[in-house]
């Protein structure tokens, strides 16, 4: 089991959904960096549960307790450690899953791997609850990156068949990223957000769930970051992104649509812009050959529908070795992509700061 990512800036996430708490240790941060914990808290609040009827009603303050690593609000060279308490847990909702694994959850493979000793409550260490400490790490890294001229932001591109406007792949407006971050429903076009809410409400009415796609961008990166072929920027970002529960796919730039294009359509022409060399389009999504090109990094992340739904499903009783029906209880997001927007930003921030510092 590995819960650590990074080469120079190492991030380790720990805890379980229903344990006493979760937390994160960030080792290798540059000393002397000022960290505004109020800004960190605002970032965490974007991911926090219980804020609306479209997310899980579980109520957690998501207020971190910083154990080490900061002196007078500045990094001091020691590992930065923060802990989150778990207070609003209902472990009894998960008792039946000790014997009956939930469809599309890690219950069964974890049962086999850990010989039945895995923590089934709330998904244990496979839970989205572990994204709270990841967001703390991301919020810290975002502040350091901003001082280096790097800006990261994301929005909910689609839920079901409802779709938002996309980022301008050539020139992303920093003010737009700040505006999205202030919204309760993280979209560019609010009318598209209303359509997405309609899709979520329809799924909720059916005791079902729905998936979504998040689009994220990073601007201000220098040319030439990355270490091909197995440590390129896409490789590193994909590894971090797939650590987020519920992720099913990732694409950069034009992504899978490139397979249906001709080279004459997909190729990005190099042009001069004053003393800079840029591309007139950005089908490559800011990365070629594993190296940054100086254009905005554009990536999209696909999230599956929430696996825990209220509809009766088929499973297996492991103790009795027989097929059975299963009805899942508990509190769950009808669309996990809604709260995952800052989580994607956090994973991108942690990765990019590590690449820059390495």
SS summary, helix count: 8
What's the number of extended β-strand segments?
18
The CATH class name reads Alpha Beta
Instruction: Report the end-to-end length measured between terminal Cα atoms.
Output: 24 Å
What would the CATH topology be?
Chorismate synthase, AroC fold
Instruction: Tell me the count of domains.
Output: 1
- The best one-word shape is globular
The appropriate CATH architecture is: 4-Layer Sandwich
- Looking across the biggest beta sheet, what order are the strands in? 1-2-3-7-4
Question: Which superfamily, in CATH terms, is the homologous superfamily?
Answer: Chorismate synthase AroC
Helicity level? 25-40%
Describe the sheet with the most strands. 5 strands, antiparallel
Low-confidence stretches: none
Order of helices and strands: EEEHEEEEHHEEHHEHEHEEEEEEEH
Compute the CA-based radius of gyration.
21 Å
What's a quick, concise take on this entry?
This protein is an alpha+beta fold. It is built from 8 helices and 18 strands. The protein has helices at 37-47, 107-113, 131-147, 174-182, 190-205, 233-241, 263-266, 337-357; strands at residues 4-5, 10-15, 21-27, 65-68, 70-71, 74-75, 80-85, 151-159, 162-163, 212-219, 247-252, 270-273, 276-279, 287-288, 291-292, 297-303, 313-317, 322-326.
